[in-house]
Amino acid sequence: MKLAALPRCGRLGGLPGSATCPALNRSIGLLHATAMVVGIIVGASIFVQPTEISRHVPSVTGMFLVWVLAGLLTFCGALVCAELAAAFPVTGGVYVFLRQTVSPALGFLWGWAMFWSVHSGIIAATSVIFARYIAWFAGFGDLGIRITAIAGVLCLSGVNYVGVRPGSVVQTAITAAKILGIVLMLLAVALIPHSGPAAHGGLTVAATTPAGAPGIGFREFVLAISAALFAFGGWHMVTYAAGETRAPDKTIPRALLIGTLTVAACYLAMNAACLSVLPLDRVMASRHVAADAASALVGPRGGAAVSVLVIISSLGVLNGVILAGPRVYLAMACDGLGLRWMSAVHARFHTPHQAILAQAIWASILVATGTYRALFTRVIYTEWFFFALMTAGLLRLRFRPSAPSTPARRAFLYPLVPVVFIISSLAVVANQIAADPLESAKGLLLVAAGLPVYYLLVRRQGSH
Asked: Domain spans of the chain?
């Protein structure tokens, strides 16, 4: 695949806000952008992922090391993304970064994978998590869960259809509610007397590996990091709405750094709280570890309160992901690399309304058919493969100091941070593929299927 040095607006079309693509309202400030970062990352997974991580790393010390390393890796990715966002402060995010610094084909493949697999799959799966916890209170079955999940997708898509400001305000409110809920849970653990995970010795006793648990190998440790990275997922999505962000070259980097540090602190505190209440073997066996910890602390009402918190967190993720995705499809359509009607911006609401509708319909189909389960497992290795390529693009941009979009300032500890991030990302990808080669092959074939579509679109562009 030939690497092309591209001008800022791309050789295949214009970026949103240029002469060939209508402008979007810049109504997202630092508070809303930071809320978007935190709101998308802090989802339902933090309330269940400690169990998955403990199965790979059956040690409290090992679990905390996994969370710290995953947080550091996410922070490195945020530094890379922040630098690229300062260089390309326009709608499209990772799609634009790949297209401008590596290859238009790779940018297209990212958007292709987003729509058909990664992004829409996250919307579908998150909506089902939301619906299942609603069903915990309402008592309806699988059909009711699917109907509720689709209703959630359509309602929040409607909120974002009528304007980015309503969507970002909803995001800020939900994020504030979930952070408040987490803080209250941490205060309850700190203030309410309890016997601890082993009734003597607390975390010291729990820190040992349970009897009969397997040893911790390198492969299991990396799989645990992958599980933690899933809980940190979505940090990059704020860059998709750069075209609607005020002073995006400054606002987005600040939001990324503040948001990822806030999330890392919340995650470490949440794990400490759960492990101070439950013994490690119970954490390993639990399907709802945070709810179990709350129930052990204050009884069934505590579990119900955490279930409400999971619902709120799911709504935050769902709203943020629904807001972010259509901006990528809009940018691709403006470049001639998508359906032309996806470049439409609503005359009154100034939103990519047709891209929002397309995303809502496809995500609802995934919910209705249940195929989101297979798609959801492909999120980590697909995303982090492209993150490695994105970071390579930043290094390539640095080797072209005369390029008009070269960032004025280098990221912290450059080039150590980008190099470490590339190596770590590829290690995560390789380990995930080795753990499930058949499913990985399906996911990679789905991504590769976009390549002939790309060349067909390029040929169509050349014929006009």
From this structure: 30-463
Strand partners, 245: 28
Chain centre distance of CA 13: 28
Cis omega (within 30 of 0) for bond into 415: yes
Give 412-433 pLDDT, tens digit per residue: 567 888 999 999 999 888 887 8
| Per-residue buried b or exposed e for 155-175, using 16+ beta carbons within 10 Å of the residue's own CB | ebbebbbebbbbbbebbbbbb
* Non-local CB neighbours of 153 within 8 Å, separated by 6+ positions: 123, 124, 127, 318, 322, 360, 363, 364, 367
Q: Taking the mean position of all CA atoms in its chain, how far away is CA 177?
A: 19
Q: pTM higher than 0.90, yes or no?
A: no
To the nearest 10°, the Cα dihedral for 31, 227, 52, 45? 20
Residue 34 contacts residue 255 (beta carbons within 8 Å): yes
Structural contact between residues 60 and 203, judged by C-beta atoms closer than 8 angstroms: yes
- Give the range among 142-151, 240-249, 255-264 with minimum mean pLDDT: 240-249
The closest of 325, 429, 416 to 387, measured between CA atoms, is 429
Residue 442 has pLDDT above 70, yes or no: yes
Model pLDDT, residue 201: 37
- Kindly report the CATH number that applies to the domain delimited by 30-463: 1.20.1740.10
CA distances from 193 to 188, 213, 297, 298 (A): 9, 30, 8, 10
CB 418 within 8 A of CB 410: no
Do residues 255 and 236 make contact, with C-beta atoms less than 8 angstroms apart? no
Strand partners, 28: 245
> pLDDT by residue (tens digit) across 50-72?
877 888 888 888 889 999 999 99
List the structure tokens of 271. Answer: 């794990």
CA-CA distance, 125 to 366, in Å (whole number)? Answer: 9
Report phi then psi at 245, rounded to 5: -110, 135
The owner of tokens 């059956």 is 58
Closest among 452, 389, 453 to 422, alpha carbons compared: 389
